[in-house]
Design goal:
globular; 44% helix; alpha/beta; 6-stranded parallel sheet
């Protein structure tokens, strides 16, 4: 259907170009192979991403964040996209500091426009050196962020992808992700649900007009 292309953003919350980078890129590649999508990618690697300092500049001025750093690039991609995948490595049993900073800093654009992310669809993916090392708490934090932002969080569903894509990298970086068949299966289930939900939301929006 013309105009029904889903704009999909993949975000890697890792400071390295290893397992998380490969995990998110694999998800975008799968979406491109199976669906009518346009994709964008943002990696925390090498980026200037300052902590939210809760100065309330964004709330007082409605002009965005007081920090002028690489979040400006990410904000544009977030607003552009219909659907997001946030991928994080597991650090100390939960998501990475870089992922948390990116989510915290979204307060600035929501303060300017509380509905800016409303009804966008979001999924999460997490990878760890252990099979069960904090992937689910990390995904729960990502889903909480989506709910607070008035987005629609999705997972791949029961039996293998309860909260999203979960990978066991075995500390082997991209090679570990690529060899994790269960992780790849959870990713594919999650991407299917993400794109199908985004399509339903987009079709409903067209019908309302």
């Amino acid at each position: 259907m013309p105009g029904n292309v889903i704009k999909l953003l993949g975000i890697s919350g890792s400071p390295r170009k290893k397992a998380t980078d490969r995990m998110v890129r694999a998800a975008l590649e799968f979406a491109e192979e199976k669906y009518d999508v346009e994709t964008e990618y943002f990696s925390a690697k090498g980026k200037d991403l300052k902590f939210c300092i809760h100065c309330d500049h964004c709330v007082r001025t409605k002009q965005g964040c007081i920090h002028k750093d690489d979040m400006l690039e990410l904000y544009d991609k977030m607003e552009w996209a219909d659907a997001w995948i946030i991928g994080t490595p597991v650090y100390q049993g939960t998501l990475s500091g870089q992922t948390k900073v990116m989510m915290d800093r979204c307060r600035a654009v929501v303060a300017r426009d509380p509905k800016v992310f409303m009804n966008k669809v979001g999924a999460g993916m997490a990878d760890g050196g252990d099979r069960v090392g904090g992937q689910e708490p990390a995904l729960q934090a990502i889903h909480n962020f989506y709910i607070i932002s008035e987005m629609l969080p999705v997972s791949g569903g029961s039996f293998g992808s309860n909260l999203g894509g979960t990978f066991w990298s075995q500390d082997k970086g991209a090679e570990g992700v690529e060899s994790d068949d269960e992780g790849l299966r959870s990713m594919r289930k999650t991407v299917r649900k993400l794109i199908q939900t985004a399509q339903m939301v987009k079709n409903a929006s067209v019908e309302d007009k």
